[in-house]
Design brief:
Elements lengths: L1 H17 L4 H22 L14 H21 L6 E5 L5 E5 H25 L9 H7 L4
Antiparallel strand pairs: 1-2
Length: 145
Amino acid sequence: MLAYNIWANNLVFQSLTEHNGNPEMWAKLSHVVVAEQLWQSRLSGIPYSGPGVFDLVEPLLLQDLMEKNARAWAQLLETETDLSKSYDYRLLNGTESRSVLSDILTHIFNHGSYHRGQIATMMRQEGLQPAITDFIAFARLHPGN
């Protein structure tokens, strides 16, 4: 799922670049990428200091954040083999919470799919052809991944 998530985010980034996506589209992708950064911060226990989760991030910085996310998730999954491990963290409103890693990862991957679907809808409404980011398209291109 991590490889799929990285692939799909990159396809949407490329599609928005090629089609001059509007700021609302870029804001949705920014939200996906920044939310991943926030979750990485929560999992590492390091206070988050990046862009806000609803900020519009400039494409070059967004691309850099996507690359950092990919490396950080890969590193986490290489070192943390216990997907049932619990993590304590604070929500954006300051409320303390706890979740297991498998639930956090499931949330991240579903969250990305949800917002990439919104971007695809926005693109179609503007007469643009969105990137095909269905999981089965990824699976066909990367069998056994």
